[in-house]
Write a structure and sequence with these properties.
Elements: H1 2-24, H2 30-54, H3 77-86, H4 94-131, H5 146-167, H6 172-196, H7 210-232, H8 255-258, H9 276-304, H10 311-333, H11 338-369
Length: 373
């Protein structure tokens, strides 16, 4: 119980630091500021989660939620040192323990902030209902109590998968799901943040982008899932040439073992070592599908540039797609450097946010067209 209270105190400290930023802000709408600060920390958490995974620190503390039953690596130093001495390059080292626990502290901080968002919205809703006041403020801006509540349940589910990531020893399907849930959390915060902002009017032509924007978001989610499968199976270097793979357009691949979802890390479903051809199939699929996603999102961004009210989002999407292509190729040609690999993960999260914003704004076009100047 003492260790749990200490862990909770660390998460509360992260949240308090964020709340200090909100309190010191000159923004009169402190709730909106809290939403965007929470989104910013969640984005950073996803980036740091990628760093944790790419440095092979996911088992830096092989238990959960603490580290060898303690609230921080300092108290568990004897256990960590013994594990590191037994296996110097193994999953447990002092550095990896600190990376893993820092990730957990920030995750708990995000959880506290989301609980704060939920409590604030429900209190305001009850106060407004008793006063007979509507919380809808203007076109494109509303005060919803359901989305923060959904965020609370989502962060609880994300925490459960974070625990299973450790207790199930980095099983690929669990780690990939953990990644997807984290990005879903980010997308939901992005939608909540967009609902709190005042947006410039979107031309009626934006209505024509509602369906393409939804399709682009779906394609990106599939691509992120494929990228997560590459990362969790350590298949990033399965093809080290481009545009060919092992000198062939379609190399020898084992899709059956590569895309068997329920299996242990580095193993087939039968418990044998996973063949290299399976890793090749994982990498090649992610690489090939990337061109479909890039082409469609680039086309969508080009269309958005022609619509008043969507031009900034379209411009940012084009830039992000270009950077993502460069970082993806750099991971191949430069032999998977850590900094660029983390940037590639962050780029996917940023594109996701931009597509969420584009979907939100495209849906505003019909509402704005109904409002007289």
């Amino acid at each position: 119980m003492k260790n749990l209270l200490q862990l909770g105190a660390m998460g509360l400290l992260v949240a308090v630091l964020a709340l200090c930023v909100v309190w010191a802000s000159k923004d009169a709408n402190k709730y909106r500021k809290l939403v965007w600060v929470t989104l910013f920390i969640t984005f950073d958490l996803i980036m740091f989660g990628a760093f944790t995974r790419l440095t092979d620190s996911g088992l830096g503390c092989p238990d959960w939620p603490g580290c060898y039953g303690h609230s921080n690596p300092l108290l568990a130093h004897a256990h960590i040192s013994a594990a590191q001495e037994a296996m110097p390059t193994g999953p447990v080292t002092v550095a990896k323990a600190w990376i893993e626990m820092t990730h957990r502290y920030f995750a708990m901080g995000v959880g506290v902030l989301i609980i704060g968002l939920m409590v604030i919205t429900w209190r305001k809703w009850f106060s407004a209902r008793n006063a007979g006041v509507s919380l809808k403020s203007s076109v494109g801006s509303q005060f919803s109590r359901w989305l923060p509540t959904a965020l609370f349940f989502m962060v609880c589910l994300q925490g459960a998968f974070g625990a299973w990531t450790v207790t199930m020893k980095l099983q690929p399907i669990i780690v990939t799901t953990h990644l997807l849930l984290g990005l879903t959390l980010l997308a939901m915060l992005g939608w909540l943040g967009a609902s709190q902002n005042h947006h410039e009017p979107v031309a009626p032509a934006g209505r024509r982008l509602i369906l393409p924007a939804g399709i682009a978001l779906l394609l990106l989610v599939i691509q992120i899932a494929l990228g997560g499968w590459v990362s969790t199976n350590y298949a990033a270097l399965a093809c080290n040439d481009f545009p060919l793979c092992h000198g062939a357009l379609i190399p020898q691949m084992d899709f059956e073992n590569g895309f068997t979802l329920w299996r242990h890390l580095g193993k087939t479903a039968d418990g044998d070592f996973i063949p290299f051809s399976a890793l090749t199939a994982i990498h090649w699929t992610h690489r090939t599908f990337a061109f479909i996603v890039i082409a469609f999102v680039a086309w969508l961004a080009h269309k958005a540039l022609r619509v008043e009210g969507l031009r900034t989002t379209g411009r940012l999407l084009l830039i992000a797609i270009g950077v993502q292509l460069v970082t993806g190729l750099a991971t191949i040609y430069l032999n998977w450097p850590l900094a660029i690999a983390v940037m590639h993960n962050g780029g996917a999260a940023f594109i996701l946010l931009m597509l969420v914003m584009l979907n939100y704004k495209a849906r505003l076009s019909s509402r704005f067209s109904a409002v007289k100047p």
